[in-house]
Each structure stands twice: as C-alpha cells, then as structure tokens.
Amino acid sequence: MSALSPPSPAPRIGVWFVGARGSVATTATVGALALRAGLGSPDGCVAELPEVAAARLPGLAELITGGHELGHGSLPKRAEELAAGGVFPAQLARALSAELAEADSRIRPGAGPGGETQRAAARRIADDITAFRDRHGLDRVVVVDVSSTEPPAPDHPALADLDALERALDAGESPLPASSLYAYAAYRAGCPVVAFTPSPGPRPPALVQLAAREGLPWAGSDGKTGETLLKSALAPMFASRALTIRSWTSVNLLGGGDGRTLADPAAAESKLRTKGQGLEAILGRPVDGPMHIDYVADLGDWKTAWDHVSFEGFLGTRMTLQFTWSGCDSALAAPLVLDLARLTARAAEAGETGPLAALGFFFKDPAGDGVAHDLGTQWRALTEWCAALGERA
Amino acid sequence: MSALSPPSPAPRIGVWFVGARGSVATTATVGALALRAGLGSPDGCVAELPEVAAARLPGLAELITGGHELGHGSLPKRAEELAAGGVFPAQLARALSAELAEADSRIRPGAGPGGETQRAAARRIADDITAFRDRHGLDRVVVVDVSSTEPPAPDHPALADLDALERALDAGESPLPASSLYAYAAYRAGCPVVAFTPSPGPRPPALVQLAAREGLPWAGSDGKTGETLLKSALAPMFASRALTIRSWTSVNLLGGGDGRTLADPAAAESKLRTKGQGLEAILGRPVDGPMHIDYVADLGDWKTAWDHVSFEGFLGTRMTLQFTWSGCDSALAAPLVLDLARLTARAAEAGETGPLAALGFFFKDPAGDGVAHDLGTQWRALTEWCAALGERA
Amino acid sequence: MSALSPPSPAPRIGVWFVGARGSVATTATVGALALRAGLGSPDGCVAELPEVAAARLPGLAELITGGHELGHGSLPKRAEELAAGGVFPAQLARALSAELAEADSRIRPGAGPGGETQRAAARRIADDITAFRDRHGLDRVVVVDVSSTEPPAPDHPALADLDALERALDAGESPLPASSLYAYAAYRAGCPVVAFTPSPGPRPPALVQLAAREGLPWAGSDGKTGETLLKSALAPMFASRALTIRSWTSVNLLGGGDGRTLADPAAAESKLRTKGQGLEAILGRPVDGPMHIDYVADLGDWKTAWDHVSFEGFLGTRMTLQFTWSGCDSALAAPLVLDLARLTARAAEAGETGPLAALGFFFKDPAGDGVAHDLGTQWRALTEWCAALGERA
Amino acid sequence: MSALSPPSPAPRIGVWFVGARGSVATTATVGALALRAGLGSPDGCVAELPEVAAARLPGLAELITGGHELGHGSLPKRAEELAAGGVFPAQLARALSAELAEADSRIRPGAGPGGETQRAAARRIADDITAFRDRHGLDRVVVVDVSSTEPPAPDHPALADLDALERALDAGESPLPASSLYAYAAYRAGCPVVAFTPSPGPRPPALVQLAAREGLPWAGSDGKTGETLLKSALAPMFASRALTIRSWTSVNLLGGGDGRTLADPAAAESKLRTKGQGLEAILGRPVDGPMHIDYVADLGDWKTAWDHVSFEGFLGTRMTLQFTWSGCDSALAAPLVLDLARLTARAAEAGETGPLAALGFFFKDPAGDGVAHDLGTQWRALTEWCAALGERA
C-alpha cells in the first residue's frame, strides 16, 4: 500500500428493523444516534465490554438504521412519547429530532395481511433491503426482528422443507407467519437475521435450510432482558448448591405495546413457552408454579416482575427467595439489539453460517444444538467465541 | 492380594468441631446421623452432586463427629431446641436422641480466657484431637471452626511469623485469637483446618507458615450461605450485561446466637468486612450503599435479608432489583460444613497443602491467590478440581 | 333469689361446623380445646379485646363443637397433619388427642350429592343439630359454614322466594346449593348462621326471608383473613390522602385444600368476586389490575400474597407500594370463627334478627345495608355495637 | 348589601416558607402556580376532598408564596433540577419559569449562625413577613417550616418560659434553635405557624405560651408522608385483629438533601424519635426491631422504605408482612404543605388558638393533648373538625 493510499475504511453496517417504529427499534435508533453524537454512555451494551469487543466488531458509530413498519407515526414523535414515559431523557429526543427524521425516511411500509401474495411481498421486502444497502454503500445489512409477538407457528407442511415452501409460494399460497416472511426475504437479499422476539421468524425448518443454502448466519430467539435473565442467573445457584426448588412462581406486569399484544392469550403462549423452558433446561426437570404475563396499562414502557421461589434445604427445611425486578423493557432490549447486529455482522464477515449458538447469552430460546441456558456458561461461550473471532480475518 | 482378603475398608474420617454444640455443629451432627440412619435426604449437600462426588470423597456415613465447646448443655437438648425453632423436624431429634447423646460424649471442654497459658491450651486441644483419632481408629480428622464470630485479629507481631509465634508461646504470652489457637493446635495434631466463620483462625501469616511446614491443607473463610451467595450469583449478571450498579443496599435480620454475637459492633465488623468485599471484587470497583446486620431476637434461627439494587442501563435509564431471602442459617450452613470436611479430607489424602483455592465456592472470603468471587467461576474451579482429584490416588 | 340458690350458670353455646374436619374447623376445635385447657394464648381472637368483650360474650371455655362433614378421617389425625404443616405446635395435637377424639364423635355425615332429596337431607341435618343441642343441654347452637368454596349460586327461581322454595322442596326438587341447604336446615332447627366462605349459604332471598320469619340473626360472608384485610386497611389510606390508585395487582399463592378447590375456575370465581368488590367500594370506582388465585401445592396450609399498587400523587408523579403477606390461612381464620360464633350467639340472645351488619369487620362481602368495607370504619361499627349489646340483657 | 356592591373578595392568603428554595417548598410553589394556571390536577391535596373542603378553605389559587432561605440558587433553577429528578414533569418547570422567577423575588435571606443577635434576627424576620403581607394586601400569612431537620432542642432554661426567653433575648443571648427563632418571629408578626419538620420549632414551652398569648393557632410536627403513614394505617389493623407484633423492622433509603442531612446522626435522632413513637402509641407498648435511615445518594429526591413485620397469631403461629414503598418525598410533602397552610389559615380566621389537634392526621408527632396516631381515627377527627368549621363564620 503506497503512502498516499487512504486508510482502509471501516466496514459500514446497516441494521434493518422489522417493526422499525416500535419501542425497541426507536430506542435502539435513538441510542445509536446519541452515541454517535457523543450524547450518552453505552451502558447496557455488552459489545463494549473488552471480552466481547475482542471480536473486532463494527463500531457503534458505523451503524445506519432502516426498516419496515406497518404502523403510522414517525420516529421523532415516537421518541418523544418514549421520553415522556421515562425510557430516555427528553432532551435526547429533542436534540436528535433532525437525525431521527432522517432515519424515519429510511423506513418502508411493511407487509400486512391481504393484498399482495407472499411471493410478491417477499420480493418487495428484499428489494427494499437491497436498495437500502446500495444507496448507502453498506458492506452488510443485518435484519433484526423487533416487531410484536406472534402466536406460535401453525404446522403448515410447507414450513418443513424449503422446496415445499418455494412451491407453495409459487402457487400463490401464504404459508409463512409474518415474521418468517421477513426472514425469508432477508435471506433472499443475502442478509443474516436476528430474531429478537419469540415469533417463529427463522425457526421453521424450511428457513433453517435456506440460511444454510445461502451460507448465512442467524441468531435467536426472544431477547432475554428481564425476569428470565434473572432466572438464568439464579437457577444455577440453587442447582450448584444442591437446593431443591419446590415451586417457582413468576408474575410479569407489562404496560406498553408489548403488554397489550401479550394480553392476547395466543401471543402470550409464545412468550410463556420460551420463558418456561429455561428453568427446566437448567434444573433438568419441570418445576411447579404459575407463570403470568399481565397487561397493566399504567406501567407504560416499564415492567415489574415478581418471582417467588420456594426451595428445600438440608433435612427438608423450607425456605424462600422472592425478588421484584422493575425495569424498562425497551431500555434493556435496545442495547442488546445493537450488540446482536454488530456480532452477527462480524460473524457473517468471518464466514459463519447457520444458528449462532455462541449468542445464546442474549436469548430466552437460544438457537443451536445443546446451547446452555445458564447465564454464566453462556457468557463463557460468548467470550470464547469472541476471542476466537478476534484472531480471524 | 489374595482372593480371600477382605475389601479395603473405606477411610474413616473424623470431623472435629470448634463450637461443637453451636447451631451449625448441632445441625451438621443431626444431619450426619440422620443420613446414616436413612432418615433424611441430603438436600443442600454439594458433595452429593455428581460433578463434586467425582473427587471420590469419603461417604457421609463414614463421618464421625466430636469437638470442643465452651458452653454447657448437650447435643440432644440443643437438637430439641433447634427442632422447635423449625431448623429440622422434631421427630428427627427424638429418633436420634441416643446417637446424639453418644456424639455429645465425644465433646471436650474448649479453651476459654484465663487459667492455662496458650501453650498449655494448645497442647491440651491437640491431645484431645489425637485421642479422638486414636480411640476411633480414624484415618484423618478435619478440624472445622463453627464457633461464634470474633472481632478482626489485632496486629500482634507474633502473628506475622511462625518462629516469633513459637517464642511468644514459649514465653507464656497469649498472642493468638481463640480461633487461631484452635487452628494452631489442629496443625500440631496433624489435622487440616476449615474456617467456616470470619474469625482469624488460619489466616495469620504465622499459621499459614505452620500449615505449609506441616504439609497440611486448609480452607476458608466464612461460609457463604445466604445474602452473599445471592450477590455472587447476581453481580456477575449485571457485570456481563454492562449494567452499571449505582447502589447496593443490604439489610440482614438475624435472630439466634449468631445474631446476638453480631449485635456486638466489633464482631459485626469481621462479618461486614467479608460480606462487602465480594461485590467489589466482582465489579472491580467499590459500590455505594449501606450494609446492616441487625439482631432481631424473634427470628430465632432464621434470617431475612433484603437487598435493594439500583442500576443504570442504556442512555442512563435507572432501574431496580430487590430481593428478600428468608432462610434458616443453620440448615444452609450444616451441609456445607459436611461437604468441606469431606473435600478437605480428600485433599489431604491426595497430598494437597496450603489454602485450597478450589473451595472458594463455599466462602465469602476465599483463601488462596486470585480466587474469583463470582459463583459460576467458583463452581467451575471446584468441579474441575474435583474431576482432577478423581483421577488421583 | 335466696342466698342458697346456686349462681346462674353461664350459657352453654354449641358451635356446629359445616365442614367439621376441614383445616379451619380443625384448627378452631384445637384452639377452643387448647384455650380451655390453658395450653395457649388467644392471639388473633378479636372477642378477647376489651372493646369487643364489652358485649358480654359467652366464654371461650363454654363452647362445645360438633358438625357435619362429608370427608373421612378424624380430628386427631387432621390435627397431626396440620401441626406437621406448621399451623400449630405438634405437642398441642398430641396433648389434646383424647379431647379431639371426643369432639370427632360429635361429627355427623354431611349431605352429599345424590341419594336423599333435599327435603329429606334438610330434615336429617336439622335433626342432627337438634340432637346435639339436646344431648349437651345447650342454650344455643350457632351453625358456622367453613366448608370448601362453591361456585356462585345459579339463578334458580325457587331461591328468590321462600314459598317457592318450600314448594320446590316438597316437589322433590334440589334447588339449593349445598351451603344454602345447611343454612336452611339451621334455621329450621332454630339456629343462627355464620357464612365464613364465599359460597351462597344464607344469601339467596328465600333464605333471607326464612331467617327473618324465624327471628334469627345471621352473619357473612367470606372471612377477611389476609390480602383483602390488608386492602381494607390500605385503600382508605390512599383515599384519605387523595392519592389516585392507577392499578392494584393482586397475586395469591395458596396450597392446601382451599388452594386446590380454587384451582377450579368456577369456585375461584366466587372468591375473586368477593375479593374484588372491597377495593371498588372503598375507592368509589373500579380499579385496573389483574387478580390471581393460584394453587401452589408445596405451600401447604400457608399463603403468600403479593400486591403491587401503582398510584399517582401531586402533579402526576407516579409511585408504588408493594407488599408480601405470608400467613397461615387456618391460623388466621380459626380465631375469627370462634369470635363469630360467640358474637352471633350473643346477638341471638339479645334478640337481634337478620343480617348482622356490625360484623362486617370480619368479612370480604359483608351482609347488611350500606356496610362499609374500610377496616377502621368497620371496627368502629363493631365496637359501638358491642358496647350497646353490653348494656342489654 | 345593595345589589350594586361587588362580591366580597376571597381572602388572600400568604404562605411564607422557612427553607423557601428547598425541595418541598419549591415543589409546593411549582404546584400552587401550576394549579392556578390549570396545568395539573391536585392529586395528593387532602383539602380538595369534599370532607375537608367542607371547612370552607381559601382556594389554592388564592395562595401567594414567599419565604426565607439561607441557600443561594433560584426557584426556576431548583425547579429544573427537581424536574430532572422526576419530581414533576420538565415542561411544568419550563412553562412556569417566569412565575417562578417572580416567586423567587419574594424570598428573603434567612438567619444563619453568627452576625446579628437573635433579638435582631427575629425582628428582621418579622419585618420581612409583615412587609410581604402589606405589599400584597394579604388577609393572613401562614409561616411553614420546611427547612432541613435540626438536632433535638437542647435543654436551655430560657425555652421553658416566655418571660425567661424574652430576658435572654434582651440580654443578647441565643437560646433559640433556628426553627424556633422563625416560630418566635412569626408569632411576633401575628402569623400562625406550621412545623412540617421534626425540628423543635414551636414546641418549646416558651413558644407554646407565646402562641397562646398572641391568640394564634399552630400545627405540627413532622409531616407524615411515607413509611410512617403506612405504619399508622397498618398497625391498627394488627391491633384490632388481636395479632401480636413481635418485631417491626424499618429501613429508609433516602437520597437528596434530606437524606444528606439525616446522614448526620444528630439530625437523624430527631427523625427517628418522631418515627418511632407512633407505633408505640398505637400498640400501647414498645416494639422490638431496628430502624434505619440511610443516605443513598443515587436515589435523588426519591425514597425507598422496606418494612418487615413479624407477628404472632392463633396458638403462637408466626407470620410476616413486608412492604416496599417507593415514593417521591417532595411530591408527597408538597400538597400536604399547601393543605396545612389553607387549614391553618382557616383555623386562624375562625379564631382557633394553640395546637391544632385536629391536624394530627398530617404529622408523625402530632401536637395537642391525647392526639391519636391511628390514621383512621385521625381522619375522623380531621373531617369532624372541618365539618364544624364549615358551620362557623
């Protein structure tokens, strides 16, 4: 390289949100813009810890956002609403209103029910993503699903096999859950996928095959931000101390959009399924006790979880632990979404394909074979993977 | 060995308690007898987990107990009192009263203030332990300090060096804190030591030298049974999620003997010192927030801890976690005491000497160089050590 | 009265339990026997407070118990089980086993589904009660329903009017819910009724008419022992401080028989209905927030309730209160059951008829016109009534 | 009155704060201005409840504020800081900045240690208050102490008697605690006094005599805003249910100015004294259990209190209640301060003198003979007094 050649530019990474004006995407967008402008500190960004940064990740300041959204409104307005709800300081929303308006202009209409066929919708979605990549000269775009939770995927035969899926799409059928339609289109556009919700997304076998065929990595599912995070830190404590858990009761009070969605029992079923499995996986047996997700409108973007654990120690003595977690779901999720985009982009750059088991640390329902649910073990897997990535091109 | 020779007998291990009629020693004695009689299940015994049992430990049924005690009373009576306080079922105390009376007959008067010199007291203590070993034909005796918490060790120059210590003892001086006197005598009797309290015990440099010179292992200090256990499981969660802890308030309400001891500010200082250091070690910086240990007589042998954690996430958003732990201290400590006796006996058998860093999992103030405070890391260190021990003679 | 005449004997009062071997009746029976034998102190007995005792109530030692029961088993055995679950000390069950066996001999088979007509069953029940009164020479018998919760009463037309009810019974129909069948029979035997459960019992209009026609008092419904008690103490605090409650979430974890019954949604509906109405009555408007009753088997006779209250103060500032109540339901209910028997017996003696509004203090769903739900107001009403009763013959 | 005469104008009331730029006074000032401007709802204002408004109180919009302050800064700036801390919405501080600047211009320098004699300081303070009343043509000024908590009053003999006090002041002595100096000056200016802090203020006998001699009413002490409020609602529940409280532990975590002041043990002593006495007064006996007030800087203007209540029910069964109160102290105190100013002004108008026992509802340490601590009884006393005031001129 001659002395006159410019420095090799940092890779430019696009983050394409499905649900781009939702609470999580808006908070992530505000955060990315704020950090680029030097207006906040990256608390909650795992990728800024040295053990993870060791993977040589794209910088926070190199991210550019876009996405699909079914709803109306605008990012500046959504940001104001979230600030009023205490998700981030109001002055941040004001200071970044021009940048947010610009980011909003990169959001395209999502694919709703009816109208076009899924084949056409997939093509349109892929075209939107490709256009975004081309217009901004991006090295890579990661598609991140942060849209509302869907019910569990019905057992459509076309989801079991990629060829069957293609035939069904060709025949004008609509076999894909919405979240999987976006994953399909993302792969068709050559983009890795992050499933931050419990929706089916990239999980149906047909899509697992497609990712493999395209040589793309993907990560999921269902970001572990609150009560399940605590469970994955506490359950190993009981297990390693040989204390038998007799019952574990979980109550989750949620306001905001996610709470409203989960007031629908069908959607709640997806969430409860992924929330419940971690405890069983860590303890090696099912555990008694109710699990509730309740919509309490006045909590807004905040969530309060109360857990009551009854356990048995030496000679049958009964004891209890209870905890109350009071957190802001969007503020907890947004930095992880940015982390996942950066880590998945780096994995794609390094040539990884298929489910990224090392990212199980971030998820309630980690994809990949034999992924641990215990947070400490997940952290070790993540950091070892990052160290190895750091050694690679 | 001819085909007719009997099977090599299991090693017989003695557990010699300092504070042999205290709540913890009584509960451990009841538990060891109950498990031998098939009257209870070993919940809370870490050594029964396969990853730890892999070390090929002496069996619970092979343990025989004895000890020193300053107080009056008797094990059967103490057991009845503890059962009335809900520490274990009353029928257990009744069913084992003969065995408890027999165990009580193996308890010798401890060394109180005044009367004999420390040189004489140490000799008497060592003789008691040796007599116990000989009478019962034991392969090994582990001395376990579960007596009341002492104030931090004063800076006596004789504690800094073994030769200086011996000279001081020869001169009729009393440089040793009571807990260290027992550790000294134990080493002189060829026994490894477990320090389950925050008292100085084996920690002064003179005693560290003595253990090394005698080729004996030792473990300590201050059993991690409740609130600190939770801290060591939860603090790594915050750290690995890049969530900044702003304050951590700890309130411990204790009844019973330990609570009364800790109502003395000097003794509480020992406890607060070891409780506080774990959080700082895990987070790498001091954390604001009060820490209280309060004596609330009506709680009896139970303890209630309330912790309030205030932390900061993305873009400065403040959130909280609080938990209430309601546990029976003796029931939590007793199985760990049996675990430590078995693990330390096995370490001695395998020729380990000095502080057993791999046992940091059990302690608030783990001895050994660079021992982690994070429970998950401690668990891994313990189980790797156990696996390696299992490979050795 | 001549100087030689003996002192007028204290009135002898019978307490006839519906559900006589249930947890509450067993605990109340144990308690009455224990207090008579001088084996316990009457903590939790409101009638022992001077403001209530002012009514000149029959003494605890004058009570004699009997009742109906569908289940098998025996009082001594049930007492042992409850003692094992921590409801009262085991030595109490042992010390009173002869008296409990005698009390068990006064329990008669209850009326189950099928077999006899309700007309015949009512006659049999009334005969049992009358025989109990005659055999023991009692001045008065109070029938107290402490059986399992039934679903809300269906709208049978015969329940709306006493004459219609009598015609239906004559016609061999079964219009009465089980709890109301017992109330009917009690009135026919000339006995006042206490409804300690949310079951319909004395509430259908036909039974209200019957009580009036017979000139008998009755009290109900649904003993206020735990979380609802707290609500009735705390909601007035918010109201009188002009703090607007935005949501009130209630989670009730119950083991034992009552928990199992309430795991049936139909039965839970009765309970949730009476639990919910107090808050609305005190605040004068409905309040948002989920209310759960969950069966958690391992809690046994204990109950843990967690409530989360979100409220708004000056200039819209949002604040929260949360509480955890950990109580033994039978131990809380049993003394109130004895209180109610004594107070209702005294009311009958003083000639009161119809719903005893002054006893609203004891109930989640207080009978009588315009009865307050606020605990302080209820206490004042109770004590004023007691003072007035004390002035009467 | 002729048809042409104008309506009699509403009385205009001045509120003169001691500590006029503190958190409570600033929030009260913002609130009064906001409500006048129609920018908020009066949640938390007891005087707006119909049972209290029945006293025919001066309207919120008729209040005009002023006061003394030792510290620098300005109301608009303090309001911004409080809004940033979540005490009230930031737009309120911005919208009212002109009005706040105007209110700030009515604040005069307070009396600090040193410099002038107490005689001179009292004269200056009284002159400031009189000038405020004259300039704004006020009917009445109520002096409200919301300054930082002082240590308990030392036993100066001049405080025991008004004549002795006057002689000491004439002699150039400084016998008065600062809070009492303001009360003295207020009375000399003909103004009633409200003591919202636990400082001595109007409590020394010499000042009680002065109020009586001047025919002025006064109210105090120590506003009951949080944990003590809950105690006064919950303790009567236990008492009326005959449940024996065995221990009551109280932990108060406070940030902000008040927390910092109370980190000084001498000042905390005042607070702990008034906090503790309510429970004892309600239960009629002292109650075991620690009480902590801790300064936790990061909580800002918020307070978290955790209470743990251990109680005993029927046959000795032990149960627990715990609660966590998370409130904003200034937002809780400010509306009560406005209430007290209005109620005390009305009392003065109606000719009441001496301690206003009916206002015990507002205080931890209610002045007046035999004032109840039970919240329900206090509420009844308040509303009966208000009803009677409503009948008077």
Automatic annotation (TrEMBL), chains A, B, C, D:
Membrane spanning residue stretches: none
Pfam name, any one: NAD_binding_5
Annotated ranges, domain Myo-inositol-1-phosphate synthase GAPDH-like: 226-330
Listed InterPro entries: Myo-inos-1-P_Synthase (IPR002587), Myo-inos-1-P_Synthase_GAPDH (IPR013021), NAD(P)-bd_dom_sf (IPR036291)
PANTHER family membership: MYO-INOSITOL-1 PHOSPHATE SYNTHASE (PTHR11510)
Assigned protein family: Belongs to the myo-inositol 1-phosphate synthase family.
Protein name per its UniProtKB record: Inositol-3-phosphate synthase
Naturally occurring in which organism (per UniProt): Streptomyces millisiae
